[in-house]
Amino acid sequence: MKDKKELIVYDKPNSLIAMKLYEGKALTALQLNIFTYLIANIDEVNCFVDIQEYSGTANTSHNYTISEIEDALMGLKTKAFKVPLEDNKILITSLIDDAIVDRRNNRVECSINDNIKPLFKELKIKLGYTKGNLRTYFEIRSANAKIIYEMLKQWQNTKYEIIITVSELKEKLNLIGNYKAFKDFEINVLKKTKDEINSSTDMTVSYAKIKKGRSIHAIKFIFAIKKTETNENDEMDKISFQIQDKIHINKAKEKLMIVDEFSDIQIYKLLMIAQEKVENKKDVDVYSYMFKNLYYTRKKQPKNMFSYYMKALEENYANA
After folding, report:
1. Domain boundaries, position 296
2. Who wins on pLDDT, 286 or 18?
3. Is residue 296 a part of any domain in this protein?
4. Which residues are bridge partners to 206 per DSSP?
5. Domain end among 139, 165, 186
6. How crowded is residue 44: how many other Cβ atoms within 10 Å of its Cβ?
7. Is residue 320 part of a domain?
8. How far is CA 250 from the centre of its chain?
């Protein structure tokens, strides 16, 4: 077994792997609540979860019993996940370490598995969760709405719309084989999710259907954070990159021959976009995709190199 002190190098940017670890795994709303609370408190060695306050039950109509909490933790503990590493290696692990349930004081002690903590440290920043602002997430009652909300929220600083195929979305929601008629999927999942996110969270969302032939092939989600009197600073500017993130950033600099055109944070954002674009393309390497679109951008000599290059990656101006 790998020594936990030894550096584990993942083969993709961290938050992309982190989201995929629990998407499509049929986690319940309660399991998602508990795990998201652990993400918000990931820097603590052991996290004490007060069941009434942080399991999503405070000020709601349903109070979970200690037995339900135990069952939720059993599900989190017993599910096995594969994490891709470099050099074609796979890490098989679970989401959480051992958990202690304190029935007398109505709380649990647990933490995210040490081997995958680096993945979720970055995701915590992208989602913006802290111990104090989780109430919004807990107000979302359905697991489908929670997963779609997180999918959109991780892009809140760089995008206002994303496109995802219906099959990919069903996979994220563990609904492959369900709702074979699109109208049933729209009524029971899309519309309910849209209404719940709009009414219960800090985000407004709508969607459009994209056809391929006569069938609905993909969904475009259009979203924005609701305006408040005070604007929060962009948390991406505060990122303290993990060692494995630096490896990918430095590799991108070398492959793309970047000297001082972009900051590390900008390169990281560009990597995330490129990784998403090539994820389902078998014959396209992420660095080749970035290089071709960067070459195209440099030829255009735009005033704002970063903004133009980001758009070029999103739209694949170079037809890479």
Report:
1. 239-315
2. 286
3. yes
4. 222
5. 139
6. 12
7. no
8. 23
Residue corresponding to tokens 């989190």: 76
Asked if residue 29 lies in contact with residue 148, where contact means CB atoms within 8 angstroms, the answer is no
| The token pair that represents 94 in the structure block | 């679970």
pLDDT digits (tens, 9 = 90+) for 154-211: 777 666 788 899 998 998 888 888 999 999 999 999 999 999 998 888 888 888 899 8
Integer CA distances (angstroms), 302 to 1, 293, 312, 317, in order: 51, 13, 11, 14
Please tell me the distance from the alpha carbon of residue 162 to that of residue 276, in angstroms, as a whole number. Answer: 11
pLDDT at 309 over 70: yes
- Here the tokens at position 2 are 């790998």
Rg over alpha carbons for the chain, rounded to the nearest Å, is 20
Task: Decide which of 139, 161, 178 is a domain's last residue.
Answer: 139
Q: Residue 47: what pLDDT?
A: 59
Confidence (pTM): 0.56
C-alpha distances (whole Å) from 182 to each of 142, 211, 219, 297 are 20, 12, 11, 39
